[in-house]
Amino acid sequence: MKDSYDLVVIGGGPGGYEAAIRAGQLGMSVACIEKRVYKGEPALGGTCLNVGCIPSKALLDSSHRYEATKHDLAEHGISTGDVAIDIEQMIARKEGIVKQLTGGIAALLKGNGVDWLQGWGTLVDGKGNDKKVKFTALADDSETTITAKNVILAAGSVPIDIPVAKTDGDRIVDSTGALDFTAVPKRLGVIGAGVIGLELGSVWRRLGAEVVVYEALPSFLAAADKDIAKEAGKMLKKQGLDIRVDTKVTNAEVKGDQVIVTSEAKGESSEESFDKLIVCVGRRAYSEKLLGEDSGIQLTERGLIDVNDQCKTNLDGVYAIGDLVRGPMLAHKAMEEGMMAVERIHGDKAQVNYDTIINVIYTHPEIAWVGLTEQEAEAAGYEVKTGSFNLAANGRALAQSEAQGSIKVVADAKTDRLLGMHAISAGAGDIVHQGMIAMEFVSSIEDLQLMTFAHPTISEAVHEAALSADGRAIHA
Ligand code: FAD
Ligand code: NAI
Known about the structure:
GO molecular function: dihydrolipoyl dehydrogenase (NADH) activity; flavin adenine dinucleotide binding
Helix content: 25-40%
CATH superfamily of the largest domain: FAD/NAD(P)-binding domain
InterPro entries: Class-I_Pyr_Nuc-Dis_Oxidored, FAD/NAD-bd_sf, FAD/NAD-binding_dom, FAD/NAD-linked_Rdtase_dimer_sf, Lipoamide_DH, Pyr_nuc-diS_OxRdtase, Pyr_nucl-diS_OxRdtase_dimer, Pyr_OxRdtase_I_AS
Largest sheet: 5 strands, mixed, barrel
Structural class: alpha/beta
Binding site for NAD(+): 192-199, 215, 282
Mean pLDDT: 97
Number of helices: 13
Bound molecules: flavin-adenine dinucleotide, 1,4-dihydronicotinamide adenine dinucleotide
Number of strands: 23
Domain FAD/NAD(P)-binding: 5-338
Organism: Psychrobacter arcticus (strain DSM 17307 / VKM B-2377 / 273-4)
Number of domains: 3
CATH topology of the largest domain: FAD/NAD(P)-binding domain
Strand content: 25-35%
Strand order of the largest sheet: 1-2-5-6-7
Distance between the termini: 64 Å
């Protein structure tokens, strides 16, 4: 550890560690302070690598393979013996992936000359040229004040608690607990039909749990395009997720080895019992111990760190990124903001395009989108035209037994410009990257119509959706 750095990054999640690496590449002296201890070891990678994106996708993959092997192979003429799942092995595989990736980040920091300081960082004073950061070491609680020309705050977020369902880390858990069940719950309750509820609800449903998802809002997947949300709702229900919209949980209590959940829908109250309950009703910015009393940093009314479009706070040389600031709580958004902040510090003109941040829900099929929904485009005053194509008529989707879902494009009818792409399909998360690139290059629907898409691919449905926007789809 040095006494002073060009840049101190507080938080070693995807936002913070990528920023630190970029700064190292640009020749700055950099420290990245991270206090996380994962399974007894100091760990980089933040929520995403330890208890978020990566472990959840590892379990989604294992559970999908299990379900597909058990139920989907007969139509291919493949027979298997009894199919069983060893939960301990599934969790061990997930841990192996987490360890490999977080260890890789430590090596990358080292390789780029970044000092990883294991402990808590507090911005004591962010004013002036030499900012003061207090470092409290995990090892012995010792406190050191370091100075920094620039600071990036990247402390991320934590799950929101609700008083009616207090987590106990055993029967009532948050997303972190739900990544570590040691057995498949017979009945699993989930509060919140958001991204975590659908992904982790799917994992345990595929492995055999009966899953009930309580959603307080009257609509399902309110942020998605209405057509896609409707299709997703139907598909997930058919898969066995019992999603109850407009239903408020009013109490959850552990009694013996059960959680008794009381909920209210249409004025009627009812009780159900579960082996486990996951509370996933959103996340909140995490700023405990991050800011000293005289840090000088301005917060928003909602407790987020106030930043401009370039992630600059009210103090020169202090940036804040990722889940700590406005915008979607997504790893790729945090990463790009980290790079932008460092490049701005370096004097470059980097900018994140917030209009093309992709959302992906990793159910099967995946649900993904970029840009405006049809409803948002209308509300923004566009004269809207849309086109969509059903995967039931896509040869590749049929050939790989994934002929479910659809792809939809949203465009400005006056200029033909693509405004959004929405997909529920195999690999939807990859598919909508085509929409992102097209939007970045200000493409029109006609551009997508005139390109040659390889046959047979799921991507052909993008071509057909664009053709359908002008009533010219071939296979519809
Ligand atoms: P974090 O990843 O939260 O990292 C912040 C780090 O800062 C933490 O490790 C914390 O320990 C550390 N820290 C905090 N305060 C201090 C301090 N004072 N001193 C030192 N260190 C500190 N996003 C996606 O894009 N795709 C996905 O598939 C996806 N899946 C998810 C699944 C789950 C179950 C969850 C919970 C989240 C998922 N997310 C996903 C969201 C994603 O994890 C976050 O958006 C992302 O991690 C935010 O990155 P960040 O760097 O801002 O913060
Ligand atoms: P979320 O915001 O996606 O969904 C929370 C849901 O809970 C909403 O539908 C909300 O209406 C509902 N809700 C809120 N209070 C409630 C209550 N008292 N009772 C019942 N329902 C209630 O939040 P979630 O799922 O916790 O995920 C947090 C964040 O993590 C996401 O917003 C996303 O940014 C990130 N994430 C991203 C993933 C991805 O990109 N694939 C995967 C998992 C998480």
